[in-house]
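> tool_call: predict_assembly(chains=two)
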Amino acid sequence: MNETIDLILKRRSIRNFSKKLISEADLKSIVECGLFAPSARNKQNWHFTVITNKDRIEEINNLAIEGMGRIGVEKEEGFHIFYHAPVVIIISSKIEGFAEVNTGCVIENMSLAAKALGLGSCIIGQTKYVYQQANKADMNHVLKIPENYEHDISICFGYPEKGDEEAKPRKENVVDYIL
Amino acid sequence: MNETIDLILKRRSIRNFSKKLISEADLKSIVECGLFAPSARNKQNWHFTVITNKDRIEEINNLAIEGMGRIGVEKEEGFHIFYHAPVVIIISSKIEGFAEVNTGCVIENMSLAAKALGLGSCIIGQTKYVYQQANKADMNHVLKIPENYEHDISICFGYPEKGDEEAKPRKENVVDYIL
């Protein structure tokens, strides 16, 4: 059995985090793995906003929840877009060829690095709803997204509250072969 | 040292492949790792076309090179978009929220799985140039992309011809912290 392949097959989104904080060394390692993602023409045209400040995480959650309300996206009472995780990373990029594919490589590296360190993660698209609140420049300021960069997605991290669950079943018939 | 993190940091794009073929078991493992990528709302709205047929790989390369010529993208004589790799996988998806980010997660999983198996890979955007040749439906037929799915990107695999090189240097000042 190959350790990395085993880890890839066992990774799953975690939506229950304990209150235990992530060490600086582990966080640094996750960020570094994100930075070592491949990018089209090696442009590395991404930016990461790493947030461990609890008040700021709450603020972003509130902005997103209110934004969801404004456009009628319903969620149960008490829903938290980051599931109260202690660390959130916002990924943004300069919009040029394959930026979002690059971002996918970044978050997958981060997600696998987290699992390798015994941590859990969940990729969060809902940070996009903060943009329902005010103009893009102001919201980019809150998220510390540089000028000419666009919000892509975010990912949150923490220690899983529950034990390892299985990944969800995979769809069938999505692979064709030309042999 | 953590094996998976070490592997993430050492992964790099390979553009020189030996003639050695990839075993069926290794290819199956790479495809499976792609299928176990996360996807927004677990939609798994992707499709993989796995190509080991040398003639078909050459055909796609020729279509892409000709397409590049049509719109004036210059490349040196003899350039091969897949660097003569023995396996190519085309990733396509239904265009709905975060499809390209999902695809990034897929190719990064595949790329890391390949490295874990001693193989090399290169993510290839240039398959998009085949669409300069004929209408989208006809080209999707060549690439075996299902109806209502769109070409995202491709990735090729093989045994690296040269030894392990270092990943390219990383850009500085792309991470901001809110502590």
